[in-house]
């Protein structure tokens, strides 16, 4: 699709789809322990950018604190969100444990870095009220 047809750079095209999918993800450390240092947050962002790239997704925004991280990910519709999340958490956990072994063992135990749960919220596009109103106002063929 040429730029004149697509003035919004967030709207992406595929062979049979035009999409603009964003998700806000939040991962919390196991037991909500304050295990993440500034250096670890920087490394976590690098790792998660690599994982996103492997899924043909883009990590648009990343930040966090000692016990959790926030991600804004732009992803294609062929990506199964649960698989992306499992990969993000699994790869980052494995690498952070390898690279910061002594620090991690002091704060976490039992072989888990992240909590088993996570938050995923869809975002971007029009608010739900606008979408509902648009659908409601569609004309049925007569």
TrEMBL record:
Sample GO molecular function, one term: DNA binding
Domain Transposase IS200-like: 18-138
Any Pfam family the entry gives: Y1_Tnp
GO BP annotations listed: DNA transposition
Organism: Streptomyces populi
Domain of life of the native organism: Bacteria
Lineage, top ranks: Bacteria, Bacillati, Actinomycetota, Actinomycetes, Kitasatosporales
Protein name from the UniProt record: IS200/IS605 family transposase
Matching InterPro entries: Transposase_17, Transposase_17_sf
């Amino acid at each position: 699709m040429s730029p004149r047809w697509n003035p919004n750079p967030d709207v992406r095209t595929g062979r049979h789809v035009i999409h603009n999918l964003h998700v806000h993800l939040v991962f919390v450390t196991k037991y909500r322990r304050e295990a993440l240092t500034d250096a670890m947050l920087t490394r976590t962002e690098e790792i998660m950018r690599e994982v996103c790239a492997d899924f043909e997704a883009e990590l648009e925004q990343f930040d966090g604190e000692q016990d959790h991280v926030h991600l804004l990910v732009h992803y294609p519709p062929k990506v199964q969100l649960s698989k992306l999340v499992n990969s993000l958490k699994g790869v980052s956990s494995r690498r952070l444990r390898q690279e910061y072994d002594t620090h991690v063992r002091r704060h976490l135990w039992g072989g888990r870095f992240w909590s088993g749960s996570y938050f995923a919220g869809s975002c971007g596009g029009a608010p739900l009220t606008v979408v509902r109103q648009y659908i409601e106002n569609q004309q049925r063929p007569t």
